[in-house]
Design a protein that fits this description.
Elements lengths: L2 H20 L3 H22 L5 H16 L5 H26 L5 H20 L8 H24 L6 H23 L8 H34 L1
Helix pairs in contact: 1-2, 1-8, 2-3, 2-8, 3-4, 4-6, 5-6, 6-7, 7-8
């Protein structure tokens, strides 16, 4: 498949996924997230010249998590939670490596507002499932670190910055915020627009991440050629 064909397929499936959520077609919903993750892997494979192993590791954890959370088994839900934690850790490491971050003081400063907001929402909710508090706390910390890394990069690396990283940051934080609100504050209410919105944010955020990686690889390659 060509790059344009895969991109068209990803967004076509996304439209079907949103409609499936609106009309509760569960069979389609079960395959949606794993299929999107797999297609993004394929898109990177045919587009990138570097084919960095960290991209495959990061997206592979996302793919595994998407499969594990399909089951309602407690074991698979725990595995899914572990998978998303590993996914976010590898995501943070990969972004730091791509952007060649050396000064972490701006990153630490940028983390604080994200950590404050998510900690506040965690402290005021009464709907936390039993045994999930510490897992949510870890998730809050990792998303805050991710947001801090992206926000500090926006201000500190203006010369080599690609707008796709900022777009990914906004969309991924919005996705986590959407899921956080739905699961902890609206879990006793009927289906809302949050789930279709979550699907849109999911595919657009990881497509933005793919574009960021490709753009950064091209910038780094061009910089290396200029040095040589």
């Amino acid at each position: 498949m060509t790059e344009k064909t895969l991109i068209g397929l990803i967004f076509s499936i996304s439209i079907i996924g949103v409609l499936a959520e609106l009309f509760s077609y569960k069979i389609i919903l079960l395959a949606y997230r794993p299929l999107i993750a797999f297609l993004i892997l394929c898109l990177y494979w045919i587009t990138s010249k570097e084919r960095n192993i960290l991209f495959f590791i990061t997206t592979f954890f996302l793919l595994l998590t998407s499969i594990f959370i399909i089951s309602e088994s407690q074991f698979f839900l725990i595995m899914g939670m572990a998978g998303i934690i590993l996914h976010r850790i590898s995501l943070i490491v990969y972004i730091i490596k791509l952007n060649k971050v050396k000064d972490f003081k701006p990153v630490i400063i940028a983390i604080i507002p994200f950590l404050f907001v998510f900690s506040y929402f965690l402290s005021i909710t009464d709907g936390i499932p039993e045994g999930s508090y510490y897992a949510l706390l870890v998730q809050n910390i990792l998303v805050s670190i991710l947001g801090g890394v992206i926000l500090s990069n926006y201000f500190m690396n203006e010369d080599t910055n690609t707008p796709w990283l900022s777009i990914f940051g906004v969309l991924s934080v919005a996705l986590y915020f959407t899921v956080f609100i739905e699961k902890l504050f609206l879990n006793n209410l009927p289906q809302t627009f949050f789930r279709p919105l979550g699907m849109i944010l999911y595919v657009t955020s990881y497509f933005a991440f793919f574009k960021f990686v490709i753009d950064t690889e091209r910038i780094n390659a061009a910089t290396k050629e200029d040095i040589e």
